[in-house]
UniProtKB/TrEMBL annotation:
Motif (Histidine triad motif): 111-115
Lineage, broadest ranks: Bacteria, Pseudomonadati, Pseudomonadota, Alphaproteobacteria, Rhodobacterales
Protein name, UniProt field: HIT domain-containing protein
Natural source organism: Paracoccus suum
Catalytic center residues: H113
InterPro entries according to UniProt: Histidine_triad_CS, Histidine_triad_HIT, HIT-like, HIT-like_sf
Length: 129
């Protein structure tokens, strides 16, 4: 068992969403991923995309997920950006994806997830950048 596997909490809020214990506003779903609206949106468009597998963060997902899971996740994220009207390739004005990892990354839920934010100018990612 890897260190990430031992850190995964099967009772985290996203695992509970995946089990149907906590309702969500689903935006899209695929074989290996789920996209739903954030309950505390930080932009007009704020959708979370999560894998259905038990991955702690982006590094864990990249290291342990199958090629099929990784491809499916990326394609669902692209579908969400297009369907939410923020994908520049589909006529949108742009979006940002954010994935936090660990303490310094201020990760709040120990289940890999990507925030898709858009619908407004978001400003710089970090002060001074």
């Amino acid at each position: 068992m890897t260190a990430a596997e031992t850190r995964y909490d099967p009772d985290n809020i996203f695992a509970r969403v995946l089990r149907g214990e906590i309702p969500n506003e689903t935006v899209a779903e695929s074989t290996h991923a789920l996209a739903f609206r954030d309950i505390r949106p930080q932009a007009p468009v704020h959708v979370l995309v999560i894998p259905k597998g038990p991955y702690v963060d982006a590094a864990d997902f990249g290291a342990r997920a199958s090629d099929e899971e990784i491809t499916d996740f990326a394609r669902l994220l692209a579908k969400v950006a297009a369907s939410e009207g923020v994908d520049p390739a589909s006529g949108g004005s742009g979006f940002r994806t954010i994935s936090n990892a660990g303490t310094h990354g201020v990760q709040e839920v120990p289940h890999y997830h990507v925030h898709v934010l858009g619908g407004a100018t978001l400003g710089r990612m970090l002060p001074g950048m």
